[in-house]
Amino acid sequence: MQAQTSERPMKSAPTPSLRRMPMYLRCLYALRKTDVEWVSCTYLAEVLQKDPTLVRKDLAMTGIVGKPKVGFHVTGLVAAIEHFIGWDNLEDAFLAGVGNLGSALLGYEGFAQHGLNIVAGFDVDAEKVGTEVHGKRILHIDKLTDLAQRMHIGIGIVTVGARTAQAVADRMVAGGIRAIWNFAPVRLEMPPEIIVENEDLAGTLAVISRRLAGLNVETDERE
Amino acid sequence: MQAQTSERPMKSAPTPSLRRMPMYLRCLYALRKTDVEWVSCTYLAEVLQKDPTLVRKDLAMTGIVGKPKVGFHVTGLVAAIEHFIGWDNLEDAFLAGVGNLGSALLGYEGFAQHGLNIVAGFDVDAEKVGTEVHGKRILHIDKLTDLAQRMHIGIGIVTVGARTAQAVADRMVAGGIRAIWNFAPVRLEMPPEIIVENEDLAGTLAVISRRLAGLNVETDERE
DNA sequence: TAGATTGTTAATCGATTAACAATC
DNA sequence: TAGATTGTTAATCGATTAACAATC
């Protein structure tokens, strides 16, 4: 009872932990620009308003080991986190649906910073096909499946309307794409091995608007 | 021990439940277009791939009461959910930062559909100020605070860069805005009474990329 | 009536927080 | 050494799921 651990831990990490990783990274990038070499969980927790134990567990998940009384080496921690969330070796992506949102994402610098390379955009609109948007070529969507296969694309970003989203996602999967980042307001039916993440703007709006309405109660108290 | 309940329940609802509400609505809107008048939790649960009890609890939260064996009246349920999440009476919004993403959101039809009215966009760029983007006037950001106050704006959408996000959010709060929808990759320091929702693209990317890397393990098994 | 469905109470599960021992 | 900090085990908390009674 001790083998198998040697390389590749790769346990399934809790989603909330994964979502926090980029926050840690942002703090650490800032530290790296200064001459600070060591950082403690306590510090990160304070800056991010989290429980120190939570931070400690998150960091432990990456496999890094800290030094009591000292903390973690900033550079080492950055590398550990980036590796843990796969940002040191990220797959290429296709984006389908070059409307307002799609165009914006094609030009979003944050992606490039995090190593996400959107290789091309796809659309049905003849006006758009053949042009470039933020330096990315726009191709006809009929070419998506075949090209995805040939280029070994791993990630598909869906920014088409709700009606066409399922069909587009199907084409992506047919082309061997293994992860779908869905910005369309529909639930996609996908084979279980496909990773689907929904960017759920309507959900966030619901949270905001409910909370706002809740506040109103007190104001409305009398009358 | 029985008074006070009469009107306005307005208990604090769990965030996950709130996020699911728009999903239910989408199903219900579709049903409403057909001649289906009644719907069961069982049906909604099946379509959305959720546990039926979960759906039942979510719906109960809105205050609606169903009929055993029959279910819920579609129209009534739509109204109950929309009211519950405040979509029948949503506040106006300002958007700051008319870059790629900001412009896209100004033209996003999904918002209008859900009753979110973005009144105007704000930017520092002299080229943009005075123009219209997707039919919304773009004003100089110096006018934001004052106008927000005079127009009783409730929601501020932050689509500026990470560096200016805090300053912009501060101006919004100074103008009486009570909810901030933050698309910038920074943590905003806000007074506790302000509702802050972060649209965390980097977090989602981390989830996707970690999961993708995880899949690779099996492929890499030997070699 | 029988059976599908609602509504509610109890059990489970997972993530966060608290407590504490180990260490440089 | 003393004290800050790591790392781990136990307790808490909240959301989901299971079990079951109530009802038309």
Question: Which keywords apply here?
Answer:
homodimer; alpha/beta; Arc Repressor Mutant, subunit A; 2 domains; two-stranded antiparallel sheet; 9 helices; 16% strand; disordered N terminus; DNA-binding
Q: What is shown here, in short?
A:
Helices cover about 45% and strands about 15% of the residues of chain A.
In terms of topology, how is this protein built?
Two copies of one chain form a homodimer.
Chain A: H1 15-33, E1 38-39, H2 41-48, H3 52-61, E2 72-73, H4 74-84, E3 92-96, H5 100-106, H6 109-113, E4 117-123, E5 132-133, E6 136-140, H7 144-151, E7 155-158, H8 162-174, E8 179-182, E9 195-198, H9 201-220
Parallel strand pairs in A: 3-4, 3-7, 4-6, 7-8, 8-9
Antiparallel strand pairs in A: 1-2, 5-6
Helix pairs in contact in A: 1-4, 2-3, 7-8
Chain A binds a DNA duplex (24 and 24 nucleotides) through helix 3.
Description:
The structure is a homodimer of 223-residue chains. The first copy, chain A, is α/β, with parallel strands linked by helices. Chain A has helices spanning 15-33, 41-48, 52-61, 74-84, 100-106, 109-113, 144-151, 162-174, 201-220; strands spanning 38-39, 72-73, 92-96, 117-123, 132-133, 136-140, 155-158, 179-182, 195-198. In chain A, the strands form two sheets. Chain A has a seven-stranded mixed sheet. In chain A, strands 1-2 form a two-stranded antiparallel sheet. In chain A, a hairpin with a 2-residue loop joins β5 and β6 (136-140). The relative contact order of chain A is 0.09. The interface between A and B is large, with 64 and 63 residues. Chain A binds a DNA duplex (24 and 24 nucleotides) through α3.
